[in-house]
Design brief:
Length: 529
């Protein structure tokens, strides 16, 4: 076992608390660490004291000990070291979903664009199916030694592809070896894909170019997977995706990653949960080529030719990567390691999200002064505006003098420092800040001593336009939204007079409110955020 791998296993042990169902895993890892290049000693101790689950996975270790395949043994340690927290959804709701899903598969091609409407009809026609009746179940309670052995062997077959042989062991463990992607039900997807795409090696004609192999497979996916609306309830496994061959961008990235990894092509799932200047977010794939991500939308665009930012010049405050191994820098890991008592937003509950923003974008560290606002917190957040609310995109520890520094933030984006409130809503913790394209950070503190007039022609960068005779309100941010005036449009614009300068503004009325965006206004120039 390499030094890095030994460190990885030791590091992961720090996140396994005693007196939990993972006791068997702690013992297994202690045995593994006692000899990185030799068979683990004290096998009898593990068998006698780790319970049924430990005995099951001991069979995986014994299998590779007997075969003498030391590298596969090391790979088994990597998987076992990261089993903690690997879960899938189960329960009556899943059984009900599967029954409705199989009905959805019978829909003719011409009507597949209406999947969500049809899904609603199916669920309404089956009132006894309660899709919310689900629970999380830990993978280690359901997967078998034979399953892991078969998967590890299949992963090593993928590693022997001509374009994959140059991958280091660490890269192999990160991009090929994992038996799952996120929280889907484990399946034998790798063996299925390898049988289907056995032609790839012949088509490559001896080439060792991973980009070319990725391109060939993606061209096949373009003909076999369609990006469109799909009623997914939780992370879909390969069998479901392979059966329906359609889904949103997230499902497309899942399906693409399954196929690519099974054929030894190092592809990851990256994404920005929330745009910096538009509502919603985006997911995409990336081919790891010489250590750098080459982004693409699997089944839609080719590696290096992606639509990530084309529409509306969308901006990314953060880019995260789904990983198989636990990320010690994730907020959920910090919360478990240090027993943080304060609640953290749902966006940061995942211990397997890795911040890779600086692999994609010019970034800036943003330092802010915070106001306590009656909350005793150790963690602060930077938020962006999305769907008429402030949504957290990153976090930082609060240091002395109530100051926090947020690392590697995307530029040309307006952020709001905030705390996670007791009701799960973001509570403003300071003035908004804007990081410009050069990385310079400007604080936006309303100045009532210098008032300005603001004229707008629409409520967002893509409309809706101001309409004559309709009434609009203007607010500006000062710890919360402050009402600044109400005006009726006399034409295609509306003007608000005597408004504090140097602020973040928002024009609203009931029409198409979800299209509204915040903006700044300097020297008669409006900038959307």
């Amino acid at each position: 076992m390499s030094i890095n791998l030994c460190y990885q296993v030791r590091r992961d042990m720090r996140f396994i608390k005693p007196k939990r169902p993972y006791t068997w895993l702690i013992l297994l890892l202690m045995i593994a660490l006692s000899g990185c290049h030799t068979a683990p000693p004290n096998v009898r101790l593990l068998t006698d004291s780790s319970g049924a689950y430990g005995q099951r996975f001991l069979k995986v270790i014994q299998h590779y000990q007997r075969s003498g395949e030391q590298t596969k043994l090391q790979a088994a340690y990597v998987i076992l070291a990261n089993l903690k927290g690997q879960t899938h959804t189960t329960g009556p709701g899943v059984v009900g979903y599967q029954s409705l899903f199989h009905q959805l598969l019978t829909v003719p091609e011409a009507h597949k664009k209406d999947y969500e409407t049809i899904w609603d009809s199916l669920t309404n026609a089956a009132p006894d199916i309660h899709l919310s009746d689900v629970a999380e179940r830990e993978d280690f309670k359901t997967i078998t030694p034979d399953y892991l052995i078969a998967h590890i062997d299949a992963a090593f077959r993928a590693w022997q592809m001509p374009w994959a042989k140059s991958l280091s062991f660490n890269d192999f463990c990160a991009y090929i070896l994992p038996y799952k992607l996120v929280d889907e039900l484990p399946s034998s997807w790798m063996q299925t894909v390898q049988k289907r795409y056995h032609w790839l090696a012949d088509s490559m004609k001896g080439s060792t170019d991973a980009y070319k192999a990725c391109l060939l497979l993606n061209n096949d996916l373009k003909n076999n997977f369609t990006i469109r609306s799909f009623p997914s309830m939780w992370d879909s496994g390969f069998p479901e995706l392979d059966a329906i061959r359609s889904g949103k961008c997230y499902q497309a990235t899942e399906y693409t990653t399954f196929v690519m990894r099974a054929m030894g092509i190092p592809v990851v799932m990256d994404g920005t949960p929330t745009w910096g200047n538009a509502s919603g977010g985006h997911d995409w794939n990336a081919l790891i080529d010489h250590g750098k991500p080459v982004p693409f939308v699997g089944s839609e665009s080719d590696p290096g030719l992606t639509k990530i930012e084309l529409a509306f010049q969308r901006k990314r405050p953060k880019v995260f990567r789904h990983t198989f191994d636990l990320q010690p820098q994730a907020l959920a890991s910090l919360q478990e390691r240090e027993d943080l008592e304060e609640p953290i937003p749902l966006e940061f509950h995942n211990q397997r999200l890795k911040d890779v923003t600086k692999e994609y974008l010019p970034v800036t560290d943003i330092a802010v002064n915070l106001k306590k606002n009656g909350l005793d917190r150790k963690i602060a957040y930077l938020c962006v505006y999305s769907r008429q609310d402030w949504v957290p995109v990153y976090w930082a520890r609060i240091a002395d003098q109530n100051r926090a520094t947020f690392s590697d933030m995307g530029r040309d984006i307006l952020y709001l420092p905030a705390y996670n409130g007791d009701q799960g809503r973001m509570v403003g913790a300071g003035n908004p800040v804007y990081a410009d394209t050069s990385g310079k950070v400007q604080t936006l503190n309303p100045n009532p001593a210098k008032q300005i007039d603001i004229t707008v022609s629409k409520k967002g960068p893509d409309g809706p336009n101001i309409e004559k005779g309709k009434t609009y309100e203007l607010c500006y941010w000062q710890e919360h939204w402050v009402f600044a005036g109400k005006e009726t449009a006399s034409g295609k614009t509306v003007c608000f007079k005597h408004v504090p300068s140097n602020a973040v503004y928002w024009v609203s009325n009931p029409d198409k409110a979800t299209k509204e965006r915040i903006f700044t206004y300097t020297n008669h120039t409006l900038s959307w955020h």
